[in-house]
Design a protein that fits this description.
single chain, alpha/beta, 6 strands, globular
Length: 224
């Protein structure tokens, strides 16, 4: 029987996407006719790999936690073929790039230990709405904006897309060298809104002697 789901890409990469240069000299992607299916195919491959890797890890030692780290910026992370959301969440309802089938390839349920990088200097949603800053992450083809890009907003959105799956919020300590008080704030917010804390990394705390700020954030976050 012929597999009707297979699509031949006659013109690569134009049938998927092409790069165009804007007036400011920066490049952005222009989707082709198979763009959305291509994103679905990429995330399916990642999710299939995660399932196989989990199986091997658990076969070797069932007590070993199988985990992952991802960036929190879900609206742009799809560009590298990663759907770390729950299968109970349908991104097609919120994002135009997701096919109806995209939701089938969320891998949150495969993970025991999940950490995400909430690497933002705006801590609260209120603060972000005042700055309205645009963010460039390493996977982005263009700048991103919105309440995803502050610590509180990130945690709220992650709760929605991960459903009942827990996650730890990560902080980047060297972002707060010039404003140590905000280190305490981001620790507090991550502890209050996520299920744990990942610090990247401890050498920055030691180098700048930021232990008081860490202690204050942990106290205010209810973990000390």
């Amino acid at each position: 029987m012929k597999n009707t789901s297979v699509k031949k890409v006659a013109n690569f990469p134009e049938d998927i996407f092409r790069w165009t240069k804007n007036a400011d000299g920066k490049y952005t992607t222009q989707p082709g006719k198979y763009f959305r299916k291509w994103l679905e195919w990429r995330t399916k491959n990642i999710t299939d790999f995660m399932a196989l890797a989990r199986k091997e890890v658990k076969a070797a030692n069932p007590d070993v936690s199988f985990g992952t780290y991802t960036g929190a910026w879900y609206p742009s992370y799809y560009e590298v073929g990663v759907n770390f959301a729950s299968k109970e969440y349908d991104p097609g309802k919120d994002f135009s790039w997701a096919t109806p089938e995209y939701k089938n390839y969320g891998y949150a349920e495969l993970i025991d230990l999940y950490a995400t990088g909430n690497y933002y200097t705006d801590i609260t949603i209120e603060e972000y709405r005042k700055t309205n800053r645009s963010i460039w992450n390493e996977t982005d083809s263009q700048a991103q904006s919105g309440t995803w890009y502050c610590v509180e907003g990130s945690c709220q959105h992650l709760r929605q897309i991960l459903k009942g799956n827990k996650f730890m919020g990560g902080i980047l300590v060297d972002q707060f060298y010039d404003n140590p008080a905000k280190l305490s704030e981001t620790i507090e917010m991550n502890l209050r809104r996520s299920d744990g804390l990942m610090v990247f990394d401890i050498v920055h705390i030691i180098t700048k002697n930021l232990w008081k700020e860490v202690e204050e954030g942990m106290k205010r976050g209810g973990s000390l």
